[in-house]
């Protein structure tokens, strides 16, 4: 993290209320321009809402949200965004390359006819994630992990300086989770950009992240794993007594007998996202970045 440069993200006394509930309450924090931040917290803690605030899609009721030194605004080209559980059904017939290209501004719908400069932008993003060969095949022929790689390429179009990835590990098995985390870490280092990577589980991110941002109960705790992942801080964020147990380099966040992160996979409607390979359920449908 370069201390002299403009922070990638700054929140100053930010309060966000949705549906009559405080999602963030007077939160202040600063994230450096080359940091990989794991964003964690129970269901409904506000991980997606924070990303939407950075995208200028949710306005705080008070406080300032600043991205790369400017107030958060819609359509900021410096931000790359990968929304949660995005359905690719409408794109399955497209070649990978055309799918990535469909994310170029003005070509979201229908097959893109791009000028050479824009074609170059698409090819660069695909190269960045090592998907040049993959991109020749239709999405319908690709595995979940391979599609995820192309979605990442789409989020990298135009080389953003801040990358927001909303639960990219959902529905991937542990091997593909590792592949995605390592890929994002590698791209983030090569480009020197900031990444917010939200997840339900801490362990897959442990080796990759510089700091962790844990949300809960309207509060936010940002710091190293040791500073944040401890009983005192997490009890405040969960609003109940939390114990942190470390076994063989893995960390478990426990409330009594319950593993809180495992329980967090169970959404209110009973869907288990950790093992849900059906992409049809999208709790954020209709309220995501266009
Ligand atoms: N447009 C909205 N109107 C009212 N309430 C909303 C709206 N958007 C989100 N919420 C509520 O705000 C809370 C925070 O939602 P958010 O999606 O940010 O949580 P999250 O941490 O991403 O959760 P998850 O881990 O389940 O994805 C939830 O209780 C959600 O139901």
From TrEMBL:
Family: Belongs to the ABC transporter superfamily.
Record keywords, A-Z: ATP-binding, Ion transport, Nucleotide-binding, Transport, Zinc, Zinc transport
Domain of life: Bacteria
Protein name (Swiss-Prot/TrEMBL): ATP-binding cassette domain-containing protein
Span of domain ABC transporter: 9-242
Coiled coil: none
Gene3D superfamilies for the chain: P-loop containing nucleotide triphosphate hydrolases
Chain intervals for the UniProt region annotation (Disordered): 265-290
One of the record's GO molecular function terms: ATP binding
Entry-linked InterPro entries: AAA+_ATPase, ABC_transporter-like_ATP-bd, ABC_transporter-like_CS, Metal_Ion_Import_ABC, P-loop_NTPase
């Amino acid at each position: 993290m370069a201390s002299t440069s403009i922070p990638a993200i700054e929140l100053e006394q930010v309060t966000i209320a949705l549906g009559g509930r405080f999602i963030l309450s007077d939160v202040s924090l600063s994230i450096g321009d080359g940091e990989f931040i794991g964003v964690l917290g129970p269901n409904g803690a506000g991980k997606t809402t924070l990303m939407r605030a950075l995208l200028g899609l949710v306005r705080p009721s008070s406080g300032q949200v600043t991205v790369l030194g400017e107030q958060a605004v819609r359509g900021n080209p410096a931000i790359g965004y990968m929304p949660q559980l995005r359905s690719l059904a409408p794109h399955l017939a497209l070649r990978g390359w055309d799918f990535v290209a469909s994310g170029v501004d003005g070509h979201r719908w229908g097959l893109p006819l791009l000028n050479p400069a824009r074609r170059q932008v698409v090819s660069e993003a695909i190269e960045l994630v090592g998907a040049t060969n993959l991109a020749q095949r239709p999405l319908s022929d690709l595995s979940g992990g391979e599609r995820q790689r192309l979605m990442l390429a789409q989020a990298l179009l135009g080389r953003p300086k801040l990358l927001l990835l909303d639960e990219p590990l959902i529905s991937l098995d542990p091997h593909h989770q590792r592949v995605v985390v390592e890929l994002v870490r590698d791209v983030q280092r090569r480009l020197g950009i900031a990444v917010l990577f939200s997840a339900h589980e801490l362990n897959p991110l442990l080796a990759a992240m510089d700091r962790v941002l844990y949300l809960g109960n309207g509060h936010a705790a940002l710091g190293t794993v040791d500073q944040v992942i401890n009983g005192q801080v997490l009890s405040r964020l969960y609003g109940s007594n939390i114990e942190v147990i470390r076994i063989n380099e893995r960390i478990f966040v426990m409330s009594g007998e319950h593993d809180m992160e495992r329980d967090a996979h169970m959404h209110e409607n009973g869907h288990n996202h950790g093992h849900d390979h059906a992409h049809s359920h999208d709790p954020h449908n209709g309220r995501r970045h266009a």
